[in-house]
Amino acid sequence: MQGASAHYSIPTNCGSIQQMPGIATFECKGNMSVSRRNGSGNIFGSSPDIYFQHKITGVTKEILLEWLSSLNDENEKNISDCYPSMGIFKYGEFAEFIFLTCEKFKLSDEVRYLAVELFDRFMNKHTEELYQHILTSIKNKKKKYWHIVQERMQKQILLRISSCCQIASKLTSHYKVIINSQIRNFLSEFDLNYSTESILQSEIRVLKTLNYEVSTASPVTSLEIILEILGFEFPDLDIKILHMISVKIMDLVYLEHKTAYHQLFKRVTGQQHFTESEREKFLSVTNNKMFLVVSLIAAATYIIDKTSTDKIIDRLCMITSIPMEDIVDFTVIHLQRISKV
């Protein structure tokens, strides 16, 4: 993948906050880079400490199905609550930077995908709050003040990303929790000199902005639960390899999200371009984490063992209630895109 270069830079353009009229256009400008850590050379991928079907710590299939049902409910709620700007700060260069930041700190897949979720939610809400403050509190020169706010947000963006990675590392109960001194040293590589107190205040700012509602499930959670269930039902499946490949495909989708879903749209509609109303309707697809996850598992299964694909897709359809045709459509898109990487 293109993201496997020796250096990476912060995003150059995150688009606009679509639900805000007029001047509410936020661009992230900058050209900072940091070296990736030395390692195997693999871009992202699965953590080495993932255990499936563990004899001591593993849970029963019944508990897993209950957990999956709960995640399905949460997924449906997220779909019903989605809004046009959701995901602006979640994909593309933002995702790449967060992924590689977590790679630098040697954090798990769950941490980096949770950090992406937190960063997108925080930036959307933070931007909206600042914009509304200018609209309601500033009488004159609103554009000028909004421009000043944009510049300040740009300067703080690496700090905010670091805070989201730090919070995510704490939420996973992982032994590699990021501490303030690590963030301070990390940011100093960009010539950004923050005190440990400033780093602490940034973490608190993220938590308060999100109203401390940070225990959301990432796509990796759903992926691992479904794989655990499949491990009970298909003991010959190499679940760990499926996990590794599924995560790598997920990385590709997040890095090239717009392209992936545009290809899916063209496949299911036969049309080349979205109308505005179609784009709004398609939000329920682009924000459906469970749909993404089952298509990733199906694609990974096809790569490992083509003969098992049909029965795995059939089972994925049964446990998630996602139509088989939809799973197949997105699976085909993944496989076509992988063949071009």
UniProtKB/TrEMBL annotation:
Gene3D superfamilies hit by this protein: Cyclin-like
Domain Cyclin N-terminal residue range list: 95-214
Organism: Octopus vulgaris (Common octopus)
InterPro entries linked: Cyclin-like_sf (IPR036915), Cyclin_N (IPR006671)
Superkingdom of this protein's organism: Eukaryota
GO cellular component terms, semicolon-separated: site of double-strand break
BP GO annotations: reciprocal meiotic recombination
PANTHER family from the UniProt entry: CYCLIN N-TERMINAL DOMAIN-CONTAINING PROTEIN 1
Name of the featured protein: Cyclin N-terminal domain-containing protein
